[in-house]
Structure formats: structure tokens, C-alpha cells
Design a protein that fits this description.
Radius of gyration of chain B: 16 Å
Strand content of chain A: under 5%
Largest sheet of chain B: 7 strands, antiparallel
CATH topology of chain B: Alpha-D-Glucose-1,6-Bisphosphate, Chain A, domain 4
CATH superfamily of chain B: START domain
Structural class of chain A: mainly alpha
Largest sheet of chain A: none
Largest interface: A-B, 27 and 24 residues
CATH architecture of chain B: 2-Layer Sandwich
Strand content of chain B: 35-45%
Distance between the termini of chain A: 42 Å
Number of helices of chain B: 4
Number of strands of chain A: 0
Number of helices of chain A: 9
Order of helices and strands of chain A: HHHHHHHHH
Shape of chain B: globular
CATH class of chain B: Alpha Beta
Number of strands of chain B: 7
Radius of gyration of chain A: 17 Å
Oligomer: heterodimer
Structural class of chain B: alpha+beta
CATH superfamily of the largest domain in chain A: RNA polymerase sigma factor, region 2, helix turn helix motif
Helix content of chain A: over 70%
Order of helices and strands of chain B: HEHHEEEEEEH
CATH class of the largest domain in chain A: Mainly Alpha
CATH topology of the largest domain in chain A: Rna Polymerase Sigma Factor, Chain: A
């Protein structure tokens, strides 16, 4: 990520914004697809809107990826919770989980069946390779909370995977 | 460990919405055009000939440099003033920028029709060129509506 291009984008250079969008969109989409697979497109668009609207507030252009990750993960969590509430309101959450176990084909499928708070820490740790401290910074929670969530998430993942 | 596959490009209309979020004060309108995507995009991509037909204050546009999707344009307004613009042009996406203005078009196929969005933005701290006026927001939106209407006529050949 070229800090000069980021700085130009922050100044309202539209072609720099265009290039920045090319660079950020695949990363934002990948995070959203892992955290909220059922609404990945909406989460991607909302995240990118929040990122580009908030770009002038970014103080250190070289820290853009950390900031983008934080904005994206928080947006994806909000949409994932919203989506789970909607599914639960329709009374299909339990049925969906039970019936889909047979079709469990990969790790992303298993991750998608965990509660959002556990799924996020596990995605960031195992799929994105972040340290516990980086996850804590991304989510704005203490490192100790990350550690205990990871512990519960791994146990829940094993249960889903082995069932 | 499989990565989520198929990470498609952002739809051009969504892309324009994101760009507008980063350009406070940008005026954006869209119109469902009763012409196929290819016909609409033929008009947008023909910068030298079509632009003066839908943008009333532009007299001439000349492409002075081209490297793939990236272009440099020389634009002359009806008062004879010239300005260079850097542009990126590809199917469904056209972004042009000078020292004073940003202009963008985005198009999405809608069956046999096309959704076309158009953005105009005056860059801060720059003198206002004649062809970017009027800067009143309501008038700016009306101007964009008029341009989209004209583009529709050009794309459906009624404007010939």
C-alpha cells in the first residue's frame, strides 16, 4: 500500500481513491466473506463506504491496513448479528444448523456455524494469521478476552467439526 | 484450507457510491436508460465526439495520451479555456479529473436496459471553470439529469 497514494486519496484525489479502492476491495471482501458469509456483499459495500467516508480521519497513512481491518470487522460483526437475529426471528436458525451439518465440507463451513463473537476471533487468528494482541486492537477489547474467546471458539469449532 | 473463491470486482454503480462517499458535496444522479449497455457505453467512451453533445459548456475534447485504461485529455470550454484531465476508462467505468473537477460515469446492465450513474464534484480550493457551473446543488443535480437525458437520446439514436 503506497502511503503517498493514501495521502493523495485523503486529499480528495479521485484517481488515487480509485486506485485505493482497487487495492482494498479484495481484502475487505475476503474478511466479510469469512465473518458474514450470508451477507458478504452487503458487508463489503457498507465497510467500503465507511472506510472511504472516514478516510480523512486516518492520521497515519502507513497504518491504513490496521484501520481498514478494524472498520471492516466491526461492520461485518454488526451485519452478522443483524442477519442472525433475522434468521432466528424466522425460526430457521436451529433447523439450518441441524440440516446443514451433513453437508459440512470445509473449514469455512464449520466457522460459519459458530456464534459471531467466536467466529470472528477464530477467523482472525487462524485464517488471517493475526496475533492475539492484533485481534484485541482490531476488536477494541482486552487481550485476555481474546484469549478466553479463542479457547471457547476452538472448543466449539471441534464440536461442530467432529459432529 | 480453502480461500473464499470468486472475489468479483465491485459493481461500477456501487463503486461510484463509494467514490461519492469520499468526495463531500459531490452531486450524483442515476437514470434507467432504455438502451442496451453497449449502446450507452459507446456514447460515454466516445469522449472526443460525444462529450460536447451532452455537456453544454464543453466545446472540444481531445485524447492526447493513452496507456491502456489511463488517458490524458485536453478539454476546451466554450469560452476557449483549456484544461487537462487525467482519466480512467473501461467498460462500465469512466473517471475523469482535472485540477478543478471530478467527473464520473458508472453503468450496470439491466437486461435490455442500462442503469447509468453520473457524478460531478468541484475540487476544494480551486477556481471554478465555466463548464463546472452552476455550483448551486439543486442546479447541479438538474444539470446532471439533463445530461443523462441527452445521453439516453444519443444512445437510442433519437438525438441524431
Amino acid at each position: 500500500m503506497d502511503p503517498e497514494n493514501v495521502a493523495a486519496a485523503q486529499q480528495g484525489d479521485a484517481l488515487a481513491l480509485d486506485r485505493l479502492l482497487d487495492e482494498l476491495a479484495p481484502y475487505v471482501r475476503r474478511l466479510c466473506a469469512r465473518i458474514v458469509p450470508a451477507a458478504a456483499d452487503d458487508a463489503t459495500q457498507e465497510s467500503l463506504l465507511a472506510i472511504f467516508r472516514g478516510l480523512p480521519s486516518l492520521r497515519a497513512p502507513e497504518a491504513i491496513i490496521t484501520w481498514v481491518r478494524s472498520v471492516t470487522v466491526r461492520t461485518a460483526i454488526r451485519l452478522a448479528r443483524q442477519h442472525d437475529l433475522e434468521v432466528a426471528a424466522e425460526g430457521t436458525l436451529l433447523g439450518r444448523h441441524a440440516s446443514s451439518l451433513e453437508g459440512l465440507v470445509d473449514i469455512d463451513d464449520a466457522l460459519a456455524r459458530l456464534p459471531v463473537s467466536q467466529r470472528v476471533v477464530l477467523v482472525l487468528r487462524t485464517r488471517e494469521g493475526l496475533s492475539e494482541q492484533e485481534i484485541a486492537t482490531t476488536l477494541g477489547i482486552p487481550a485476555g478476552t481474546v484469549k478466553s474467546r479463542l479457547h471457547r471458539a476452538r472448543a466449539a469449532f471441534r464440536e461442530v467439526w467432529e459432529s | 484450507m480453502n480461500d473464499p473463491v470468486a472475489l468479483p470486482d465491485i459493481d461500477p454503480i456501487d463503486r461510484l457510491t463509494i467514490l461519492a462517499a469520499a468526495l463531500p458535496g459531490a452531486a450524483v444522479r442515476q437514470r434507467r436508460i432504455a438502451a442496451p449497455f453497449d449502446a450507452v457505453w459507446r456514447v460515454i467512451a466516445d469522449l472526443e465526439h460525444a462529450t460536447p453533445r451532452y455537456e453544454p459548456d464543453v466545446a472540444h475534447v481531445r485524447v492526447i495520451e493513452q496507456r491502456g485504461e489511463l488517458l490524458r485529455l485536453l478539454v476546451q470550454d466554450t469560452a476557449g479555456r483549456e484544461e487537462t484531465m487525467d482519466a480512467r476508462l473501461r467498460p462500465g467505468w469512466c473517471l475523469m479529473q482535472s485540477a478543478t473537477v471530478v467527473i464520473a460515469f458508472a453503468a450496470r446492465r439491466l437486461g435490455s436496459e442500462t442503469l447509468l450513474a453520473h457524478l460531478e464534484h468541484r475540487r476544494a480550493h480551486t477556481p471554478l471553470p465555466r463548464w463546472s457551473q452552476p455550483h448551486d446543488r439543486r442546479a447541479a443535480l438538474a444539470k446532471i439529469d439533463q445530461e443523462l437525458h441527452t445521453i439516453e437520446r444519443l444512445a437510442t439514436h433519437h438525438g441524431r
